[in-house]
Amino acid sequence: MAANSRYSFPSNPAANPKAVVTGGKGSSHYRFTVLTDRLIRYEWSEDGGFEDRVSTFALFRHFAAPHYRVVDLEDSLEIITEHFHLSYDKKKFSSAGLSVKVHKDVWQYDGNSYGDLGGTARTLDGAWGRVDLEPGVLSRKAYAVLDDSKSMLFDSHGWIATRPPGRIDGYLFAYNGDHKAAIKDFYRLSGTQPILPRWTLGNWWSRYHEYTASEYLELMDHFKREGIPLNVGVVDMDWHKSGWTGYSWNRDLFPDPEGFMKDLHNRGLKVTLNDHPADGIRAYEDQYEAVAKALNHDTSRNEPIQFDCTDRKFLDAYFDVLKLTLEKQGVDFWWIDWQQGDRTKIPGVDPLWVLNHYHYLTSRRSLKTLQRPLTFSRYAGAGSHRYPIGFSGDTQITWAGLEFQPEFTATASNIGYGWWSHDIGGHWGGVRSNQLTVRWVQLGCFSPIMRLHSTKNLWNSKEPWNFEKDAFKTIKEFLILRHRLIPFLYTMNIRAAYESEPLIQPMYWNHTDAEAYTVPTQYYFGPDLIVAPITSPDSTTTLMGGVRAWLPRGRFVDLFHPHLVYDGGRYMHLHRDLSQMPVLAREGTILPLEGTARLANGSPRPTEITILLVVGKDAQFELVEEPEPEHEEALGDDGDTVQPPLRSFVRTPITWKQREGILIIGPEWNGTGRWRQWNVKLVGHTGSDVQARVPPGFRATREHGCTTVALGHVHRWNPDGGFEIALGRDLQLDVVDVNARVFDVLHRCEMVYDLKDPVWDAVARSADAVPTRVERLQGLKNVDASLKNAVMEIWAADGRAKGSAKGHEVWVDVNKGGAAVEQIEEALKDYVIV
After folding, report:
1. Which residue ranges does the record assign to the Glycoside hydrolase family 31 TIM barrel domain (predicted)?
2. Beta carbons within 8 Å of 324's beta carbon, 6+ residues apart
C-alpha cells in the first residue's frame, strides 16, 4: 500500500447548497443546514467563515434537500419543517436567542451535547462499577444534540487539521422517540459501521502474562484438547523488551518470533500485539537506526525518537518502517493501548483519534490476511464506530462491574458504537469467584466480541479448566456456543453495516412502552432474541441467580430452558442456575447455528447448519456469508476500501410458514453449490408427532424440551431452487407444566425440608382460587424471598397452563447482590491500589 493511500478515505463533507440558510453581518454570522426534516446543523462564527472540511464526526453532509420553510426578518429567523421549528435572533448563539421546538419540547442553545439515554465512554479503566457516560444522539425528550465545535478535522489531503477558535458547530436530532430513524441518519452523516472479518466473532484469548513462546503454544494446544475453539491469540505487552512501550521482541521469551507467529497461524489463529506508543522509539530498539534514518534523526547520543502523531513524517516512519517490519514477521493487527490523555503538540488534536484513524486505514495493506480493515483500541468520541474494534479497558473484578457492563454495551449503540470488546471476567482487583466468572462469560457469549482477559497476577487467569468442575463445564459450553453462533453473528454483522442495525440494542429501540426504559441491563441481541444477563450472586437457597426483566407483548421461550414459555406484556423475575442464562426468543424466530460437532479454530464456513426454530408465528431469516472470491469487490481503483455490494454476498433465505408447517431453505444466491448438512431444532416444541418430509429422509429426536430433525446432507443448489420440509401444521410451543417445573425448583432448594411442603401445597395441592393461593405463598414466613419469586415465575409464566397465576403474580423485593456481597465489596475498596 502506498503511503499516500493512508490518507485517503471516502467522504462528501460539503452540504447541499439547497439545504443551506446563511446570513449575518458585522461580528455575527450564521449558517444552518437542513440535512433532513428532523436533523439540522447549526453554525456560528465571528468572521463569517464556516467549516466544510471533514470532522472526526461528520464525513457526509451532502443530503438531498428536504422540504422546509424560512421566515427571514430583520432581527429574526425561523426555519420550519414538519418536525421542528427553529427560532433565532441573528446574534451569537445563546439560550435566549436560539431555540428549537420539537413536538412539546423546546431546546435552548447552551453549548453542550445532550442525549439523556446515554452513549458510551472512552474507557472503563479502573472502573469498580458504573461510570459516567458521554451523551448519545437519543433522548427521552423529543430532541438530542451533538456539539461538534471542538472535534478534530481532516484536510483535503487526509491529514489532520484544527478549527479556527471561537466557532460553533453542532447538530440537533429532532426524532421524538423514533430512535432507529435517528441512528440511521447518524450513520448517513458520520459513515456506516464497517464489516468485521468473520473470525473476529469467535473467541479471543488474552492475558497480561510473561509468556514464553512454548508456553503460549502449549496453552493454545490445551484449548484444542479440551475442544474449545479460538480465533485470536492476543499477546500483551511482555512480548517486547521492557517498559510500557516497545517494538523489539524479548528474545529470552520469544527466540524465534516469526516461527512463533507462524505456529499460531498454523493453528488457525490471528495474532495481535499490544502497543503503548507514547514513549516513542528508544535507542535499544531493533529498528531504532532504520526509523532514525527515515526521520534524519541524530543517533550519535542515542536519544529516543519522540512519539509525535502530529508529525506526518514520524507517523509514516511509525507505520512504514517500524510496524511494517513486525507485520512482515506475522503480526496481523494491532491492539492500541493508549492511556496517556487527549492532548498533543497541536491543541484540539487527540492522539487517540489519530492512532485509531490511521491504524485503521493502514490496515488495508493487510487485507489478504485480515479480509477487512481492522484495529483494536479505545473509544475516542462520536464517529469512533468507523474504527472497530473497541477495547473498553481494565475493569475491576466485581459484581458491580458485571452489572454495569450490559448497560454500557447497549447504550453505546446510542452513539452508533456497536463493537465493544470487554475484558470478559474482569481485569484486576476483586476476589476469585467461580460464579462471577461464569456469569461474565455468559454475558461475553452474548456480547459483540468475546475476549477473555486478566491482569498480571499469579492467581488471576481465565483458563476455563482452572475453575471448579461445574464452572469449567459451563464456561466451556458457552465458549463453544459462541463459535456456534457465528453464522448468526456474521449475518448480524452485515445487517449492522448495511441496515444501520447494531447487533445489541436497548429495549427502547424497538418498543415505545415506558417499561422499555426501566430495564437497562436487558437488551436485544439481533432482531428476535432478548437477553437478560444475571449479574448478581446465586441465592444460597434456590441455587439460582435472578434478574428482573420486562417482556414486550407476545410469547417467548427460553433457549436455555425451553420448558419455560412466557406470555409477554409485563415484568417477570427470571431465575436460572449457574449453567443457564435467560435468552428469550419470540414466536417466529429462526436462529442458524454452526452444526459441526467439533469446531475448528478460525471459524471456517460451516458444512453443517442447525436451525433453531421457534414455532407459533411466521418467520424469516436470510443467512449471509462472505462473498465467494469471484464476487468479492473489496478495493476501489484508488486504493480506498469500500464495502462490497450486498449482492456479492452468499445469501440463503430461510422461511417458516406457520399455518402450513413448511420450512423452506434456499435457494442460495452466489454460492458454489457445495453440499451442506441441515438440522432443524424446534425449541420448546415436543407435543406433536413431527412428520418431516424431505429427501433423502430424516431422523427426529426429542429431549430437553426440544424436537430435533436431522435432515442429512442436502445439496444447497438444487435445480428447483432450494428445498421444503413439512414439519406439521400450525405447531405451537408446549404449555408449561407448572407442577413439574415447581417440583424441580423445590427439590434443588437447600432449605429446611418441612418448609418446602407449604410452598408445594400452595401451588399444587390446594383447591382454593389462584389469588388466594398466591396470597398464601407470599405470606409464608421463613421462606426465602428468592424462592417465592422463582416459584411465582413458573406459576405465572404461561397463561395457557392449568391453574396459571398470570395476572395475579406478586414479586418480593430481593436485595440484589445480597448484603454479604455488598459488605465484602465495600471493604475491598479500602485495599484497592490505583
Report:
1. 194-492
2. 365
Query: For 508-533, what is each residue's pLDDT tens digit?
Result: 999 999 999 999 999 999 999 999 99
Looking at 693, 726, 759, the residue that finishes a domain is 726
3-class SS of residue 573: strand
Where is the domain boundary, 158, 190, 222? 190
Domain assignment present for residue 547? The answer is yes
Q: Which residue has the cell 479480509?
A: 371
Place of cell 420486562: 550
Q: Compute the C-alpha angle 213/219/224, nearest 5°.
A: 130
Would you tell me the crossing angle of helices 213-225 and 257-266 to the nearest 10 degrees?
Answer: 10
Q: Is residue 600 part of a domain?
A: no
pLDDT-derived band at 717 (thresholds 50, 70, 90) equals: very low
Nearest alpha-carbon partner for 193 in 493, 463, 617: 493
467 and 356 part of one domain: yes
Query: Long-range contacts: 780-784, Cβ < 8 Å, 24+?
Result: 780/755, 782/752, 782/755, 783/751, 783/755, 783/758, 783/759, 784/539, 784/541, 784/542, 784/751
Residue 633: pLDDT band by 50, 70, 90 thresholds?
A: low
Grid cell for residue 129: 462499577
pTM (2 decimals)? 0.95
Contact 11, 324 (CB under 8 A): no
Show the beta-strand stretches assigned E in 6-53: 20-25, 28-36, 39-45
Query: Is 24 within 8 Å of 77 (Cβ atoms)?
Result: no
User: Which strands make up the sheet holding 555-558, listed edge to edge?
Assistant: 504-506, 523-525, 529-531, 583-586, 555-558, 565-567
670 with 764, same domain: the answer is no
Q: How far apart are CA 547 and CA 584, in angstroms?
A: 13
Q: Which three cell numbers stand for residue 536?
A: 448478581
Listed residue (168, 141, 184, 151) closest to 39, CA to CA: 184
Check whether residue 756 and residue 696 sit in a common domain: no
Please provide residue 532's backbone torsions phi and psi, each rounded to the nearest 5 degrees: -125, 85
Neighbouring C-beta atoms of residue 312, cutoff 10 Å: 16
| Element holding 545 (H helix, E strand) | strand 545-551
Q: Which domain holds residue 540?
A: 529-586+735-820
